[in-house]
């Protein structure tokens, strides 16, 4: 489809530098009607300002949707049932938001009769893949416009110059210097660019927004109790909470105790290595708590199987395959494993650390103190049985050992 054939496009619009430039560029280059869609997924900023900016640029159909509960309930919580973490460090904060944005964007395209969608992801990053895999999975014939793969505005400075030329307001502009590229939602805030492009440079303390440094965190620990039902947190300190409220509360507690900072060099799906910094207070606490309650309630082999499959599941999310058949299949297995993951976990938050100090499940605990005790178990466990168990498991190694002896 050529640009002349595009009549209406739905743009994922944050109101920031990139997407504001894209909005104007679409109007100029494609000469089409632009519908803007702004998602409130807990980024902590006023999203209504996007409406004012879009109106000022002549947009007639403006969608601003509060998706915080859907994001937490249908995307973040299912991911944490899997204990998903990419390359051992990244809690997938940006990755897991993209399928929801793509889903709502396609819904708006269907609602408004748009024949195209557009996003602000660059041609170097993962987000272009995540958005577009979602678009095509949900509406196979949709036309996708990716400005970063078409225009000659190849740097953030060129974007700033374009914005100045067209009278587009830009917040957080530091003189002539480009700001960090940031992405925020209920799960995290990320930072890329500027001095972070040198992997040897330590992030400046002023960059961090959600957390105090561990050195400046309180000298007294904060204790919290998480209540789980089927693998999901449903209450904190006995107070029932919705999924989004759980995350908001844990972000506040975690940030105040210096929890959730990460400085990572990760492998992007497109092939390059990238350095980014992240603050994920709620996610860091959620991962620790969930593994603690599973340690008590989940069968050993089921837990080990989940751990074996988790890297594949995390990669699917990181690479944009949330809507794929294989991710959905894995999710069914993961969700089935959570039927018995019920109980409470007590955590201590202290100077950047999350420490498990208690776990309890009245209905589903597989921990039997009568068997596990170092004291007299009153016959609950026959220690003599271990001898045969060990000999059977050693049989193949004993056979191999005898063979080596004969060859000497």
In short:
This protein is of the alpha/beta class. It has 3 domains: 3-67 and 93-180, Rossmann fold (3-Layer(aba) Sandwich), CATH 3.40.50; 184-360, Argininosuccinate synthetase, chain A, domain 2 (Alpha-Beta Complex); 371-407. Helix 1 packs across helix 6, helix 7 (243-256) crosses helix 8 (281-297) and helix 9 packs antiparallel against helix 10 (325-337).
Overview of the molecule:
The protein is of the alpha/beta class and 408 residues long. It folds into three domains: 3-67 and 93-180, HUPs (Rossmann fold); 184-360, Argininosuccinate synthetase, chain A, domain 2; 371-407. It has helices at 17-30, 49-56, 68-81, 93-112, 127-138, 156-165, 243-256, 281-297, 300-319, 325-337, 369-372, 385-407; strands spanning 8-12, 33-40, 62-66, 116-118, 143-145, 181-184, 189-192, 222-229, 232-236, 239-240, 261-267, 273-279, 343-350, 353-360. Strands 3-2-1-4-5 form a five-stranded parallel beta sheet, with helices on both faces. Strands 10-9-8-13-14 form a five-stranded antiparallel beta sheet. The protein has a four-stranded antiparallel beta sheet with strand order 6-7-12-11, with no helix packed on it. Strand 13 (343-350) and strand 14 form a beta hairpin. Helix 3 (68-81) crosses helix 4 (93-112) and helix 7 packs across helix 8 (281-297). The radius of gyration is 25 Å and the shape is elongated. The protein starts with 7 loop residues before the first strand and ends with a helix.
